[in-house]
Amino acid sequence: xxxxxxxxxxxxxxxxxxxxxxxxxxxxxxxxxxxxxxxxxxxxxxxxxxxxxxxxxxxxxxxxxxxxxxxxxxxxxxxxxxxxxxxxxxxxxxxxxxxxxxxxxxxxxxxxxxxxxxxxxxxxxxxxxxxxxxxxxxxxxxxxxxxxxxxxxxxxxxxxxxxxx
Length: 165
Prior knowledge:
Layout: H1 2-39, H2 47-68, H3 76-80, H4 84-118, H5 132-158
Helix pairs in contact: 1-2, 1-5, 2-5, 4-5
């Protein structure tokens, strides 16, 4: 059962990475479109805001994939110099703290989205979009990051030969 959950979570991280790549392409498209429309003296409302929303979505959706693929700065240089028994304790401690911080981030991002939805907050740009819509993508990225860190924390706790992926 653990292997199927592990595969499912790894697929979730990969699909979040694909979504992040999609939003990065959207940033490039919108910035290019903004430049071209300015040269043609045509005003397209909201391009700047939508590229900003895409940047936030890309950043947060990429967090879990990057963490899973060891792309984030880690304390591995410090941990590699420790004795094996102490290294495991330090790895568990680091992943435990990271789990708490990532859950805290996801919780408060959820509160932000909820209150934006509840009070019907609109953006201040020309498009006046409801803010909870782009914030939901950031919330999704934060929740999947919390899952990824928790996933690695549980793997570290219950696997003797745990090596950070």
